[in-house]
Amino acid sequence: MSTTLEELASVSELAALAAPVTEAASDAERASWLRAVANDLHAHVAELVELADSETHLGSARLTGEVARTTAQLRLFADVITEGSYLEATIDHAASATSPPRPDLRRMLCPIGPVAVFSASNFPFAFSVAGGDTASALAVGCPVLVKAHSGHLALSRRTAELVLGALERSGAPLGTFALVEGRAVGKALVQTPAIQGVGFTGSVGAGRALFDLAVSRPDPIPFYGELGSINPVVITRAAVATRGQELADGLASSFTMGVGQFCTKPGVVFIPENSGFEALLASATTAKLGGALLTDRIAEAFPRGLQSLAADFEVEVVLGNTDQDALADGASPVILATTAAAVRKRPETLLEECFGPMTLLVRYSGEAELGRTLSAFQGNLTATIHAQPSDAISPLVALLSKKAGRVLFGGWPTGVSVTWAQQHGGPWPATTSLHTSVGATAVRRFLRPVAYQDAPDGVLHPALQESNPLGIPRRVDGVLKLGRFL
């Protein structure tokens, strides 16, 4: 049942009332909220996995691992806020001898207020109701209104019940969290005056529509959308010659993982022409199974994407059937191939994301052609290089660093570690911002800097008080001070 506009107004009002309380809560208090949610999710893992599998068909092994990732995210953000450097506390003491004289200035990051989070279809736990966007916003004191994904509504409702129960028992105020449902309500949510920021994971079309709503409000708000990525991979001739079968096996596993429904799927792979890699990959992929896609909409879109690519006169089918009925029969792996010259001529067609178990091999003649073709790419979440020590790849690294938020050397982009150093974001259309949605600095999306000039010590947040009662890292007069607890 969709949330009514009246119900949306009610939960939004509660979120606005809760915001000053969640902001005033100490980092230790908010950390206890996150750990309580993590504990409750872990305690109900069997129930949640069974429910998720009934709606998504992702399998108990994958889903059990995803619950573990989700609880780990919650605990990581608890550690992030208690460590304290996320506040970026910075102090410049007054200096009367400078020209002009310098006042006492103290700056830190503060929560922006209630935020909206849109659940993703392909990660029913880690990017959903209690996922990374929710966890990072709650961590810094922003109440959260989650828009449930229609692909796993029963799971969303049960997860929300657990989150609400854990928050209530651990002392979070009423209005800290709420779940809403329905496409129309999703649009209204972005335009609700109480909402001060949005986190979104989904398609370019839907994300762009919501992004436009967010920035066209009378009071425009930040929209942090993860939208689309084809995650280019470059394999050098020396790498194919040295370990071609190993690379083929790895690529086959990566682009078919989760029936190709990962935002980090390697969707375009550059291979040296006449290297024999196509045959190796076809052989490695033959035994890979397809499966049901997450939603009817995805199942209907996958064949359309395949047919659009295959219709190009310079695209060949290396393996698989491009005329699939994924809605009735599930999706099966497909390998297509083309040339670098074709990609440069028609990037709007050949570099279109196709969500499902397919990859496009792009044959290149040499480094110069490779560089020219990669320059035609828009932004991506990841880029991967498979090379040998004898390859001079510094120019390639510099180019791909401009095109993606994470550059891999060996390995495959599917699988995103939740760590302090992770970056999961990139230039448009990978994301609508420069910030990550995974890892410690995901909290930065829901914070804004505020400077206090010549403020009495007693009115300052403890992070900026002269005695540093929190013992956190701070930069004082240009020098980084690690704090007494580090």
Short description:
This protein is of the alpha/beta class and 486 residues long.
CATH topology of the largest domain: Aldehyde Dehydrogenase, Chain A, domain 1
CATH class of the largest domain: Alpha Beta
Radius of gyration: 24 Å
User: CATH superfamily membership of the largest domain, which one?
Assistant: Aldehyde Dehydrogenase, Chain A, domain 1
Question: Which residues sit in consecutive blocks of at least 5 with pLDDT less than 50?
Answer: none
User: Can you count the helices?
Assistant: 16
Cα shape: globular
Count of DSSP strands: 17
Biggest sheet character: 7 strands, mixed
Beta-strand content bin: 15-25%
The overall pLDDT, averaged over residues, is: 96
Gap from first CA to last CA: 50 Å
Offer a few descriptive terms.
Aldehyde Dehydrogenase, Chain A, domain 1, single chain, alpha/beta, Aldehyde Dehydrogenase, Chain A, domain 2, 17% strand, seven-stranded mixed sheet
List the helices and strands and how they pair.
Blueprint: H1 5-24, H2 27-43, H3 45-56, H4 60-83, E1 90-92, E2 105-111, E3 115-118, H5 132-139, E4 144-147, H6 153-169, E5 177-180, H7 183-191, E6 198-201, H8 204-215, E7 223-226, E8 233-235, H9 237-256, E9 268-272, H10 277-285, H11 296-310, E10 316-319, H12 326-329, E11 334-339, H13 340-345, H14 347-350, E12 358-364, H15 367-374, E13 380-386, H16 394-403, E14 404-409, E15 447-453, E16 474-476, E17 479-481
Parallel strand pairs: 1-16, 3-4, 3-6, 4-5, 6-7, 8-9, 8-13, 9-12, 11-12, 13-14
Antiparallel strand pairs: 1-2, 2-15, 10-11, 16-17
Helix pairs in contact: 2-4, 2-6, 3-4, 3-6, 4-5, 9-10
